[in-house]
Amino acid sequence: MTEKCGVVGVSLEDRDAARPLYYSLYALQHRGQESAGIVTHDGFQQHSHVEMGLVGDAFGEGDVESLNGPVGIGHVRYPTAGSVNSCCAQPFSVSFKSGSLGLSHNGNLVNAEEIRDELAGLGHAFTSDGDTEVIAHDLARNLLEEDLVRAVKRTMERIHGSYSLTIMHDDTVLGVRDPQGNRPLCIGELDDGYILASESAAIDTLDGELVRDVEPGELIVLRSDGTGFDSYQLFDEDNTAHCFFEHVYFARPDSVIDEELVYEVRRELGRELWAESGVESDVVMPVPDSGRSFASGYAEAATDDGSDVEFAEGLMKNRYVGRTFIMPTQDERERAVRLKLNPIKSTVEGKSVTIIDDSIVRGTTSNQLVQLLKDVGAEEVHVRIGAPPIIAPCYMGIDMASRDELIAAGKSTDEIREKINADSLSYLSIDAVASALQSSRSDLCLGCVTGEYPYDIEGEATDREVTRPEISTESTIADD
Ligand code: AMP
């Protein structure tokens, strides 16, 4: 079970948090379309509304009004192939002896099963099979013995994997990023309070100011009167494991993640793509929407180099077609690409065309597009991809299909080119990705393009020294 989602938390001076939470979930809708939810606290009790569907469908006007209290957390959940699972909709909320807890999780733990088994052995009853409930139970247990910060630290010592969490304990909202900072999380200042969100676009939507990213291993506690926040750097690892695919595909281009504006990174990736494998053609066109910033960087670098390639929007997207990627059968996915994208014949006919996309996963989109463009008269179709070949699954929170479905697993670029029937195909190198992100390879999670992960995943290789935390019910926290 992977949790590929958007999370948010808000603490305000004396206004209900539900509406800002609702708007920020709208801003994070691209991170999850299966379910949406908000849990608030009014100083006495929690109020919760969690529904399946898009934010606009999950909440009616009365639902937002009924969520009282100046603090709260929210969540949008990403769907998994073929399954719509209401038991895993979030935020997860529960009342324990140690107080009420709400949890929103983006990421994926690699040792959730071990912790679940151990807690179940101690009498904890679970209502879902998701990671989030495991974290909630562990934290609730620690809260019986420790203060809030120590309890979170103790839970972080036990859980291993990727997580960006917003947590509400009674009327205090917290944000936590795993020690390697795999998934994003940032802090924003509003006129009358503070917000934690997966992406800064949510802060912009509320006319707030991005303060900064939450650091890997950092715990942020928003003061419940909305006047500020406190920071606790609980873990300090030598290396980070930021997910490069957030910048390539998942995040909004107008978000700033780990101090980089996603749009600028994508344009730089496009420029690098031209530098590494630019091909002369009559037109360059993006595969909308994800290929746009890459294609504009690519075309700009081409023009700087003296090429007279024309930049054109030659593929139109039907904006009412939802996500096709997760459709269960290949036949449906192929039909859906055709529903989603249509070429403008006059920009293509009789021309050599380069199409730019951010990634190839199963190959459905590029295969269909090359055929479509040839059907409407393109003389040559070249494909340029702004990421390296995806050869392995993602265990850290992004749906990448299984290894046997990945077109690049075990194939050379020329074999893939032949499969998608393109005249030429090039991907971007891993070094170019690291350079565009102004990072070193050892500070990125590159598992899906190298097959080596920064976490200890059963049956997979790792690219660094990692140790799984011991599962122990004893307190391991040092006095500090
Ligand atoms: P495919 O058609 O299977 O090769 O998938 C590639 C297309 O899906 C590209 O246009 C990407 O923009 C998009 N894409 C890549 N990764 C994902 C993902 N994890 N979820 C949804 N769409 C994706």
TrEMBL record:
Pathway: Purine metabolism; IMP biosynthesis via de novo pathway; N(1)-(5-phospho-D-ribosyl)glycinamide from 5-phospho-alpha-D-ribose 1-diphosphate: step 1/2. It comes from the Archaea. Binds 1 [4Fe-4S] cluster per subunit. Binds 1 Mg(2+) ion per subunit. Residues 5-225 form the Glutamine amidotransferase type-2 domain. Its cofactor is [4Fe-4S] cluster; Mg(2+). [4Fe-4S] cluster binds at residues 243, 394, 445, 448. InterPro entries: GATase_2_dom, Ntn_hydrolases_N, PRTase-like, PRTase_dom, PurF, PurF_N. It catalyses: 5-phospho-beta-D-ribosylamine + L-glutamate + diphosphate = 5-phospho-alpha-D-ribose 1-diphosphate + L-glutamine + H2O. Its EC number is 2.4.2.14. Residues 461-480 are annotated as: Disordered. Residues 470-480 have a biased composition (Polar residues). It is an enzyme of class 2 (transferase). Keywords: 4Fe-4S, Glutamine amidotransferase, Glycosyltransferase, Iron, Iron-sulfur, Magnesium, Metal-binding, Purine biosynthesis, Transferase. GO terms for biological process: 'de novo' IMP biosynthetic process; purine nucleobase biosynthetic process. One of its GO terms (molecular function) is 4 iron, 4 sulfur cluster binding. Catalyzes the formation of phosphoribosylamine from phosphoribosylpyrophosphate (PRPP) and glutamine. HAMAP family: PurF (MF_01931). PANTHER family: AMIDOPHOSPHORIBOSYLTRANSFERASE. In the C-terminal section; belongs to the purine/pyrimidine phosphoribosyltransferase family. This is Amidophosphoribosyltransferase. It comes from Natranaeroarchaeum sulfidigenes. The gene is purF.
